[in-house]
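Hello,

Our lab assistant flagged a job as stuck in the queue for most of the afternoon. It eventually completed. Since we weren't sure the result was trustworthy after the delay, we are filing this so someone can double-check. Below is the sequence as submitted and the structure that was eventually returned. Let us know if re-running is recommended.
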Amino acid sequence: LGLAHHFRIYAPEKVPYAIDLYTTEARRLYGVLERRLAAHPWLAADACPIAAMAVFPWCRSHANQGVDLDEFPAVRRWFQTIDARPAVKRALAVLADRRKPPARMTPEERRTLFGPGIGDKPAG
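-- returned structure --
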């Protein structure tokens, strides 16, 4: 999912092959989640918070990965259940307050996030 983000949003050069490859892989992964969540209400045996904490943040950016949650109703249900939790709302508020878009990062912050070369130019 991270590579879908990278090539769809952050890469300074748009590479259609990479965009298609990682968008297709993202959709495959959501299909795996869909099959699991269609058969069980949670990713693990019960409302296992560690599984939700590992997967939920990636699902928040589904549109950036080229995924429409309407195509994955069980994932959408699970996502909305997690997203409605008060602790999640508090955590997302903290994130929103501290997050910087790549275009507003310093060159050093971009290099730290994306590596030398890629991080030297602002995202466009």
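-- support follow-up --
The delay was a queue issue, not a problem with the job. The result is valid. The longest helix spans residues 16-39. The two ends are 20 Å apart (CA to CA).
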